[in-house]
Design goal:
- The chain has about 260 residues and is mainly alpha-helical.
- The protein has one domain.
- Helices cover about 75% and strands about 0% of the residues.
- The longest helix is centred in the C-terminal third of the chain and has 28 residues.
- The chain is globular.
Length: about 260
């Protein structure tokens, strides 16, 4: 693949937008960058990435974006360390399994899994949450075993598509674990960072990462993710939830539409 200046600028722009939004709403960015990297380059006349290439590039971008976002939240008081340890360990194991296994899957299968995951996340985001946004961390009640199991499943699925899994973790934390929004955003970034370590290792080991596009996305992430995280701390929590819900839903619709077109042609 030829990397022209115009092509690299386009990749940087995609990474910057995705990383800013990811830092703002507490996701790694794959839910945004995956469809943009898959479809936008060809719209501008450039060669399209394959699903495996996109998943590999996204894995590296998520690693850097979440690391940058967590750094911003380090002294915020919103990081739930107990959940980070338990869910982070489970999601890391799951992401290694999914990442190494994805190399044997077809591109259509990778996209299908991504579509299913995005659809589940979209449905969860529109289930009303009865969380008390003012609840203190010590007063939270949830099943650590259930949270750990769900994190493992998220890890396997996200490992396949090169995501950190935050676009599933966020609705799970909001709807099932009933955590406050800002605590969910900060904690999910930390867990996703751990998950992305396993996913990135697996993608690199199975030769699914294109070095130059990945470097461009990393630079964009280092610049944009901290800005998004700082901005997200100032935005109304309900607005953050709706932004994430719309992004996930739009992505799910796009992925399923393209899968439908592939199946009917």
């Amino acid at each position: 693949m030829d990397y022209t200046i115009a092509f690299l600028v386009l990749i940087f722009a995609i990474g910057f937008v995705g990383s800013f939004i990811s830092g703002m709403v507490g996701i790694g960015g794959a839910i945004i960058n995956y469809p943009m990297l898959l479809f936008i380059p060809s719209l501008f006349g450039f060669a399209a990435f394959s699903a495996h290439e996109v998943s590999g590039i996204s894995a590296v971008q998520v690693l850097v974006a979440t690391m940058s976002g967590v750094y911003v939240y380090r002294n915020s008081g919103f990081l739930n360390k107990r959940l980070i340890i338990y869910m982070g360990s489970a999601i890391l194991i799951g992401s290694l399994i999914g990442g190494f296994g994805s190399g044997d899957l077809s591109e259509q299968t990778v996209n299908l899994i991504y579509g299913i995951v995005a659809l589940i996340a979209a449905i969860l985001m529109f289930i009303p949450s009865k969380t008390n946004e003012d609840i203190q961390m010590k007063d939270l009640q949830y099943s650590i075993a259930w949270a750990t199991f769900l994190a493992f499943i998220v890890g396997v699925l996200s490992g396949v598509v090169g995501a950190g899994g935050a676009f599933l973790l966020v609705p799970i934390m909001l709807v099932i674990l009933k955590m406050p929004t800002r605590m969910t955003i900060a904690t999910s970034l930390a867990i996703t960072f751990i998950s992305s370590i396993g996913t990135t290792i697996a993608k690199v080991a199975t030769d699914q990462v294109l070095l130059i596009p990945a470097i461009v996305l990393v630079v964009a992430s280092l610049l944009a993710a901290p800005l998004g995280a700082k901005y997200g701390q100032k935005v109304n929590q309900k607005v953050l939830q709706w932004i994430l819900a719309v992004l996930i839903t739009a992505t799910a619709i796009k992925i399923w539409w393209d899968l439908f077109v592939q199946w009917t042609t």
